[in-house]
Inverse folding.
């Protein structure tokens, strides 16, 4: 089939997210200017550059108590920093719990039963049990097409890795099995790996 998005797809559910898969989950932690902590997962997330290391995530929703966006972007606008926490298979239920729509100022760490630690290079919390966390300072917030679409770009200023995940000098994802987002309500866990050598290596 072929369809133009402006005309609709005619299917029971939007297939777009199921086509662009798997997507890593950026579990974004922030602290607003009043000192209130927030945690929320975003599946429009990825690393985008090596030097300096940079990441992006996109927020596509809105809350009545946050104007044109959600709690994460609202806090980032105030402070200019955020932390990306990597979601392991063991944290899937806590990640899901943190996606609940709660009133502004609510602490999703507490709601999801998660311990937090302080970041080193920025004023924000991080998920204590995450296998890795990326401390970031905002470089740009770009308003995208659509009523409430915002792209947040950040430079990584500090990186935490669980020592248990480092094997033979590599950060071994099989030690924690990262969770990824698929379409609809589907997720996948990375368990099996294989290597490919580039033709010019």
């Amino acid at each position: 089939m072929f369809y133009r998005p402006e005309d609709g797809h005619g299917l029971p559910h939007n297939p777009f997210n199921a086509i662009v898969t798997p997507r890593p989950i950026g579990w974004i932690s922030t602290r607003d200017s009043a000192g209130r902590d927030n945690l929320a997962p975003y599946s429009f997330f990825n690393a985008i550059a090596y030097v300096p290391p940079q990441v992006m995530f996109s927020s596509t929703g809105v809350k009545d108590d946050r104007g044109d966006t959600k709690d994460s972007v609202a806090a980032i606008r105030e402070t200019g920093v955020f932390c990306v926490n990597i979601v392991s298979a063991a944290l899937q239920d806590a990640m899901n719990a943190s996606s609940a729509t709660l009133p502004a100022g609510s602490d999703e760490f507490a709601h999801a039963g998660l311990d937090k630690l302080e970041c080193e290079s920025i004023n924000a919390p991080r998920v204590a049990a995450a296998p890795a966390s990326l401390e970031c300072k905002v470089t740009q917030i770009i308003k995208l097409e659509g009523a409430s679409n915002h792209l947040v770009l950040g430079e990584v200023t500090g990186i935490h890795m669980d020592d248990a995940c480092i094997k033979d000098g590599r950060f071994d994802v099989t030690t924690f099995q990262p969770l990824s987002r698929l379409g609809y309500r589907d997720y996948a866990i990375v368990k099996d790996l294989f290597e490919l050598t580039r033709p010019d290596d």
